Amino acid sequence: MGSVFSNLRLLGPAAFVAKAIFVALAVDGLLLAFILLRRAYRTHYFSKRDARVFFYRQRWNALISGEIPYKTWRKKAFDRGVIETMALDALEAAGPQDAAKLLKFLRTSGLIEKRIFEARELRGWRRMRALVALGRTRAPEGITALAEGLRDRDVETRLAALRGLGRMACPQAAEEILAWIGETGLSVPGLPLQNALVQCCAERPQVLLPHVQRAQGPVREVLGRVLGEVANASLGLDLMQFVGDDLDELRAAAARAVSHAQPALAFDVLNELAEDPIWFVRLRALVSLGTLSDPRALPVLLRGLSDSNRIVRLRAAESLIQLRAAIGLAKFKDEKHGEPTAVDDVEKLGLVSIFEQVAALKDRYGLHAYLTALENANLRGKLEEEIDQSVDLAPEMKKCLQEVLQTGQLPAEPIVDENVTVKAEPVR
């Protein structure tokens, strides 16, 4: 009796089809067996991990305090990984006191030193995992190992080290990143670099200034965007050098920080930047003008309501509300202490007066932006009440303003007000 395959020869060309079917069935059977085996292994793994997490969670305080000896779990790779993950997850949401306890536990148990060793000695995905975990600890002693990872030949390893330094969120990490950029240039994508520097420079943005002055090309653009995000009052007049810079991000950074300088100087600079051709520079300038408490900013903010960019119009409207509130508070403080107020033309900053000037612009986009800002500040009802109770408005003007406020539509006839000094500009 011949074998099965010898009998297949009798089928002629159909034998090839039969063999292909047998091979496909065998491959499908092996694939199905692999899937079932993998599923069984993963079920066992997650069940075991869940049991160990529950076990250590019930004894968490004793584990962190050292009552449970470290030697009972440090040599068990599975338990060590579970405990490290639990500690790092808890560190993410911990307050100052709890964070100090967890960091002490990570140091005393040797987990930080182990990650530092792995970040220096291992290669490939194991090194990347160690670099990210080391960054999550936020331990200053790990900054040097992370800085070494920035100089790895593999771009993925460099990105892992960069993310780790970003997690540190401290000026020392920023200095390492900036020194590396100065040596190698932009050897990673700009966005991860920008995010890491924003986190690290938020506490002390001054570390950026010398590097921005020396940088060129794409590196300077990235550093300019970072400076625009972290600029604050501590920079003071240091950013005045960038007011006329060719880089848009640096002008935006100057517009953001200059509002904390001397009011007289700040207004002149912001008034110039409010006419900048780049929309986000104008936006930063208008936002800063709203915080100055200077009545001279009113015409500039009103012009901002006719800007070609929708976001700039919205921020100009919000700055009008903020300017009025800031000046009203300053006037209240001066009067409370029996001192003459330094605010002139305060009557032009009343809700009714500003709304009258907004309507006089004859710009429906600017009107809608201002009405949106009123709604967000919960001042629409107050404006309706002040218009109704105003004794300075003629009945026709009062009725016209009420219709504009209720319908959001500009009046057919132009609003004439002798106090309005801002000319309407066409919508671009």
Structure explained in plain terms:
The chain is an all-alpha fold. Mean pLDDT is 82; it is low at 329-347 and 417-428. It is built from 22 helices and no strands. It is 68% helix and 0% strand. It has a domain at 1-54. The chain is elongated. It starts with a helix and ends in a 21-residue tail after the last helix.
Oligomer: single chain
Give the number of DSSP strands. 0
Low-confidence residue ranges: 329-347, 417-428
Distance between the termini: 93 Å
Q: Would you tell me the structural class of the helices and strands?
A: mainly alpha
List descriptors.
mainly alpha, 428 residues, disordered C terminus, single chain
Compose a concise summary of this entry.
This protein is mostly helical.
List the helices and strands and how they pair.
Elements: H1 4-8, H2 14-58, H3 60-65, H4 77-92, H5 96-108, H6 111-121, H7 125-137, H8 143-149, H9 155-168, H10 171-184, H11 190-201, H12 209-214, H13 217-230, H14 248-257, H15 263-273, H16 279-290, H17 297-304, H18 310-336, H19 351-360, H20 364-376, H21 380-389, H22 395-407
